[in-house]
Design brief:
By secondary structure, this protein is mainly alpha-helical. 74% of the residues lie in helices and 0% in strands. The longest helix has 27 residues. The radius of gyration is 16 Å and the shape is elongated. Keywords: Cell membrane, Membrane, Transmembrane, Transmembrane helix. This is GlsB/YeaQ/YmgE family stress response membrane protein. InterPro entries: Transgly_assoc. It is a multi-pass membrane protein.
Length: 95
């Protein structure tokens, strides 16, 4: 159990960084938020891969890692869009 958490943190950090490199443009995200997005994507990707039986292969689980990366890219896009919406926000009223 502890090994799974440690590997999720390590893989999540790598996945989060790769997702930031893949997403075009500037992402207004901190390193901590990138780690959180990567870790969540790694955990969800592993869960989905186990549910479909894709995680029990011989050698490297490429499908699981690709799924984790796709989820991380989606997470980075979602966070970037949410922070961009808050940054611009509605204009002043009554002008």
């Amino acid at each position: 159990m502890i090994g799974a958490i440690v590997s999720a943190v390590v893989i999540g950090a790598i996945i989060g960084a790769l997702a930031r490199l893949i997403v075009p443009g500037k992402q207004n995200m901190s390193i901590g938020l990138t780690l959180i997005v990567g870790i969540v994507a790694a955990l969800l990707g592993t869960l989905i891969a186990h549910l479909f039986g894709w995680a029990d292969t011989k050698g490297i689980d490429w499908i699981e890692h690709i799924l984790q990366l796709v989820l991380a890219v989606g997470g980075v896009l979602l966070v970037t869009r949410m922070s961009a919406g808050k940054a611009t926000g509605p204009g002043p009223t009554g002008v």
